[in-house]
Amino acid sequence: MAAHRFMVASLLLCCFLHSCYGVTFSSLQRTLVVTASPTPGQVVKAGEDQITVTWSFNQTFPGTDSAYKTIKVMLCYAPISQVDRAWRNTVDNLAKDKTCQFQIVAKPYSPSNNSFTWTIEKDIPQATYFVRSYAYNSDSSEAAYGQTTDAHKTTNLFEVQAITGRHVSLDIASVCFSAFSVLSLFVFFLVEKRKTKMSQQK
Description:
The chain has helices at about 1-20, 170-200, and strands at about 30, 30-35, 45, 50-55, 70-75, 100-110, 115-120, 125-135, 140-145, 160. Helices cover about 25% and strands about 30% of the residues. Strands 1, 3, 5, 6, 8, 9 and 10 form a seven-stranded mixed sheet that branches. The chain is elongated, with a radius of gyration of 29 Å. Belongs to the NAR2 family. Involved in nitrate transport. Keywords: Cell membrane, Membrane, Nitrate assimilation, Signal, Transmembrane, Transmembrane helix.
């Protein structure tokens, strides 16, 4: 009886720790092959350009994907864009990890022939990125991953150029107003100078 209680208590403790700590990235196996259309170093524009992502199960992996139920493809910050930005920190506990903050697509898992074209959303910050996919099991927990870069996240990176909020028409209007202001000031100066000269002549 005591042994039974101990086993139940241990099981409950394990479940509690798992729910509190969550899945760790280091515990996942890289079983997915992921590619993205941007070439290394390419600059793509938020709100305009598109990214095509493909993913599949790595057939050379000595295991199966029978536990995979859903897939999520994420846009993730590269280390160079995480420096001095705590809100983008990489944490082994995936529940606290801030590396991948932007979802590209989520759908039921399929082992092959997966492709999705995503228009980069307008609110994506300017930074250097890579793409990562997570496979989830029936408990909605991360079960495996794949990414477009190497383990150190230094290869196949691309940059997103954010929307600045400025437009050509606004820039032209700004230049016109500035020129008008300078011209008005010059005319005002000439008029005042003429008035002064005329008053002196009287």
